[in-house]
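Structure (tokenized):
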């Protein structure tokens, strides 16, 4: 997940930075740092990505038209 995809996913879900931070178990400063291009530990990026994937966001890799996000079927983890 790239920082721009994090911003896109948050916008798609209507999540504020504080909401994402709470759901991922990280600080708001960590989310801001990531979204502005700072490198984070992979485990932190994975925690952020997991929040989005559990909410039904799929990350689209570069395919000639740029990276992106889209909605997919929500995860059934824990059900």
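Design, position by position:
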């Amino acid at each position: 997940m790239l920082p721009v995809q994090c911003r896109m996913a948050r916008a798609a879900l209507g999540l504020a930075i504080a909401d994402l931070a709470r759901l991922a178990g990280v600080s708001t400063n960590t989310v801001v740092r990531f979204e502005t291009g700072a490198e984070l530990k992979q485990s932190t990026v994975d925690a952020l990505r997991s929040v989005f994937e559990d909410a039904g966001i799929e990350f689209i890799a570069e395919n000639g038209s740029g990276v992106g996000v889209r909605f997919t079927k929500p995860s059934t983890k824990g059900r």
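Reviewer-requested clarification: The chain has one domain: 3-71. The mean pLDDT is 92.
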